[in-house]
Q: What sequence folds into this?
C-alpha cells in the first residue's frame, strides 16, 4: 500500500518540525510524535512513521545536511519522498552546517549512549560496528565514508594504516611475484614462503629500509634498491581518501563474554601534505609493510603494500588538525 502525497507531506512536515525543535535545544518525545502523526493518517501506524523518518534522514545525509538525532539513515525510500523532501529544502533551506560538525554531533551521540556491540574478529570490526551504529553503509570503495570524510577507528597503540599502493616501479625484479621469490624467507610455523615485514627509515631485521631521494621514495635492502614510489603517486593516494579524515579512538571491552567498544576521542585532520609525508619518512614516522605469502597452489598471496604512520605523528601530516575528547568508559 503506497504512501499518498498527503501522507508523505505529513511525515516531512513532522520531521522538519522535529529538526527545528532540536536546533532550539528542545526535548522531543519521538514515540508521541509518531502516534500523533498516525492519528492524522490512520492507514499508517506509528512504526511506519518512524521508518519514514529514517528514510528522510537518508535523503538529508545524501545531501550532506544535518539530520535528526537517533534516526539512522535508512535507504530504499520511494522516489516521491525524495522529490518532496528536495522541494521542501528549496522552499525552506536548512541552516548551513559543515559536514565535520554534523559528524562530530553524531559521534557525540554515539559516545553519550555508551558502549556499542562489536561483531567478528577482523581488524576492521570496530569500523564496521561504528558504521552500523551511525546507520551508514559499509564502504569498500575508495570514496570517503561519511559526507566526504574518511573514518578510521583504532583500539590500540599500533601503527595507523593510511593506504595501500602498488609500487611505481619494481627495480630489482620484473613484478611482485619475482620480487617475492627474490626476497622471501621460509615460515617454519606455517610451512610456506613468506615476506611479512614493516620497516621505516631506520630499517628492519631483514635489511629493508626507506630512503627519500628527491621526489622518489625508495625501499632498499642492504643498500640495493628493491622498488620505488614517485611522490606524485603517494600524494594522489593521500588525497584520494584522506583529504579529510576522522581518526577515532576506541576502547575495547567485554561484558558477559560479548565484545563492545566505547568511542573515546576524535582526531579530525584535513589537508595532508606530501612534503610533510616525505619529511616523516625521513624521520622514521612512516612505515611500509610487505604482506606476502605463498598459497598452496604456488601463487603469491598479497594483502597489499601498506603505508602506515605512528599515531603520534598524525598532526604533523596534515595542515589542519583538531582533537576532541569524548566520554570515557
A:
Amino acid at each position: 500500500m503506497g504512501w499518498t502525497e498527503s501522507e508523505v507531506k505529513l511525515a516531512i512536515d513532522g520531521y522538519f518540525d522535529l529538526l527545528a525543535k532540536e536546533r532550539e535545544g528542545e526535548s522531543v518525545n519521538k514515540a508521541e510524535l509518531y502516534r500523533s502523526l498516525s492519528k492524522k493518517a490512520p492507514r499508517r501506524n506509528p512504526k511506519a512513521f518512524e521508518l519514514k523518518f529514517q528514510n528522510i534522514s537518508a535523503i538529508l545525509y545524501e545531501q550532506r545536511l544535518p539530520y535528526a538525532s537517533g534516526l539512522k539513515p535508512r535507504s530504499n525510500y520511494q522516489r516521491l519522498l525524495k522529490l518532496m523532501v528536495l522541494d521542501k529544502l528549496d522552499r525552506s533551506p536548512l541552516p548551513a552546517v559543515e559536514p565535520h560538525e554534523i559528524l562530530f554531533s553524531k559521534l557525540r551521540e554515539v559516545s553519550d549512549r555508551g558502549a556499542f556491540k562489536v561483531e567478528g574478529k577482523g581488524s576492521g570490526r570496530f569500523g564496521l560496528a561504528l558504521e552500523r551504529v551511525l546507520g551508514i553503509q559499509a564502504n569498500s570503495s575508495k570514496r570517503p565514508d561519511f559526507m566526504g570524510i574518511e573514518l578510521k577507528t583504532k583500539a590500540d597503540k599500533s601503527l595507523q594504516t593510511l593506504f595501500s599502493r602498488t609500487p611505481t616501479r619494481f627495480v630489482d625484479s620484473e613484478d611482485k611475484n619475482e620480487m617475492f621469490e627474490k626476497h622471501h624467507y621460509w615460515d617454519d610455523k606455517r610451512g610456506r614462503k613468506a615476506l611479512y615485514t614493516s620497516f621505516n627509515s631506520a630499517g628492519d631485521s631483514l635489511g629493508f629500509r626507506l630512503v627519500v631521494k628527491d621526489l622518489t621514495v625508495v625501499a632498499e635492502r642492504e643498500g640495493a634498491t628493491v622498488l620505488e614510489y614517485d611522490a606524485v603517486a603517494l600524494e594522489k593516494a593521500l588525497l584520494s581518501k584522506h583529504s579529510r579524515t576522522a581518526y577515532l579512538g576506541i576502547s575495547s571491552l567485554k561484558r558477559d563474554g560479548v565484545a563492545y567498544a566505547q568511542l573515546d576521542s576524535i582526531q579530525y585532520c584535513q589537508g595532508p601534505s606530501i612534503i610533510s609525508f616525505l619529511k616523516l619518512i625521513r624521520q622514521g614516522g612512516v612505515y611500509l609493510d610487505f604482506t606476502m605469502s605463498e598459497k598452496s597452489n604456488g601463487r603469491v598471496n598479497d594483502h597489499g603494500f601498506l603505508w602506515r604512520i605512528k599515531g603520534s605523528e598524525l598532526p604533523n601530516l596534515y595542515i589542519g588538525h583538531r582533537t576532541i575528547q569524548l566520554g570515557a568508559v
Observations:
- The chain has two domains: 5-91, 150-325.
- Residues 5-23 form the longest helix (19 residues).
- The radius of gyration is 24 Å.
